[in-house]
Structures are given as C-alpha cells and as structure tokens.
Amino acid sequence: MSTPAAGRATGRGLPPRRSRFDALDALRRYGIAVVFLALVTTMLIASPQFRTQGNFLNLLQQNAIIGILACGMTFAIILGGFGLSVGANAALCSVVAAKVMIEVDIGLGVAVALLAGVVVGLVNGLLIAYVGVNPFVSTLGTMTVIRGLVYVYTNATPLFGVDFSFTRVGLGRSLGVPNPFWIFLGVALVLGSLLSLTRFGHHIYAIGGNTVAARQMGIDIRRMRLVVYMLIGVCAAASGIILVGQPATGQPATGQPAGALGYELTAIAAVIIGGATLAASGDGHHPRRGRCDR
C-alpha cells in the first residue's frame, strides 16, 4: 500500500506537466502578429517609399473606414452572424448625407445619415432575430436591395455640391494625424469598452459561446441581436459620412468590389485576422443554418 509520503516523493520525482499543444496554442494566438511584423519589417527594408511619413499617414486615412466597419462587424461575428450589407449601407448613408447637406444643412445631413444607417440595421435585426432569416441570406438580400435603390435614385452618378469645408472630416488632420483615424480610434475605444467592460458585452460573449445557456440565464437573445445589427448600421453610417468628407460628394458606388474585396468581405477578414472566429456556436448549431433562437 502506498502512503501519502510515498506519493509525494513520487510526485517530486516527476517532471512538471506541460501541454504538448503549448507551441500550437502560441502560434494560434500570436501567429498573425508575427507575420504582420515580418511583413512590415520586410517592406521597411525593401521599399524606401513605404517608410515615408506620407505613406504611413495615408494608410491611417484609407484604412480607418474599414476599421470602423470591422468594429461593428466584430459584434456580429461573435454572435455567429454576418453583416454583408455594410458596404451598401455606407453607400446609402453617403448619398443621403450628401443630399441633405446640399439642400438643407451639414449637421442635419450627418443626423439623417446616422438615422438611415440605424434603420437598415433595424431591418436586418428584425429579419434575423425575430423572423428567423439566416444572417447570410438576410444581409445579402438587404445589400442587393439597398445597392439597387441607391443606383436607381442617383442614376449611378455621384452627388456633387457638398460644402467643401466638410472635407476636413475626411481629409483634414489634427495633431498631424488624419481625422478619419481619430474617428476610428474613438469608435474602437467606445465599442471595445462596451464589449469588454459592460454587461451588454458579456451577454454578447455568452450568446456567442452557448445560446442555450445564455437563454437559460435569462438573456433576451433576440433583442441582443437586434441591437447588434443596429450598432453595425451606426458604424456603416459613420463610414459613409467620412466618405462624403473626402471628395465632398455622395458616392453611390461606395464599397462596391472592383477587382478586389468589397467593404463587407474586407471588414469580415479584418475581424477574423484580429482573432474572432466563424466556428459554430456553443449549442451545436452552426449560424449558417438560419436557426432563430427564441
């Protein structure tokens, strides 16, 4: 019969247990960052133009729009959904904002654009959360409808006439940094805090991890999904407003793929590269099956 002392002695003789998947786990966690740093380092060495201040500031300005869309898309991805209409929504908000700014007032144009973005998000949320339409199908459908309506309304022609002073939003700089980047930074800080420091964010993670357990905890899953898609609509509206502030026009072709990924897929790719996952939810139901959790 072994004694506790013998057991302790035997335990002291064993090497510390280490998971054989430690290296693989580290690779999953930090692989993208390592590849990114390697790519940046290579470009800094190989291309003198890449390491110029002008190029760096241009990258901040041009990618701020994708960053804002990705901030909202993160919530949908965590829930196991998609937001394929963000590019079309940004185009709609761009056109609406430009139209109101030209005919009425700049401030009212911004407000109406935000309202339009929320309405599109509300429609997506109702279809997904309450009607039970698959998120992929729902947002793909609204993308097609919105894009068509924008093209019909504008005859696929940009709306000119926005006060040139509004270009400060899209092209101006504060403290030497492009204003779109400051807007993106503000959105990222607000939504990041909302996701990690509030009950709302904890509920988002709970639903994404296991919808059955989240429902049993008393979380209103349908309402949470509705709010998330409205939030995505606000992010799309912010992107559309910035786009108006770059050429001082409303752009009906905003986010339309032209030999490259559109805003929708680029934002989803940014979220996935950032660490989110498209894996099935914790209750065993894949989000693509269109199941509406009630």
Tertiary shape: globular
Q: What is the number of independent domains?
A: 2
Walk across the major sheet and give the strand order: 1-4
Spans of at least 5 consecutive residues whose pLDDT stays below 50 are 6-11, 280-294
Decide which structural class fits the backbone.
Answer: mainly alpha
Helix-strand topology string: HHHHHHEHEEHHHHEH
Helix content: 55-70%
The total of beta strands comes to: 4
Distance between the termini: 57 Å
The amount of beta strand, in percent, is under 5%
Largest sheet: 2 strands, antiparallel
Number of alpha- plus pi-helical segments: 12
- Name the assembly state: single chain
Give a description of the structure:
The protein has about 290 residues and is an all-alpha fold. The protein folds into two domains: about 20-50; about 60-290, no CATH class. The protein is about 70% helix and about 5% strand. The chain has twelve helices and four strands, in the order H-H-H-H-H-H-E-H-E-E-H-H-H-H-E-H. A two-stranded antiparallel sheet has the order 1-4. The longest helix is centred in the N-terminal third of the chain and has 26 residues, at about 55-80.
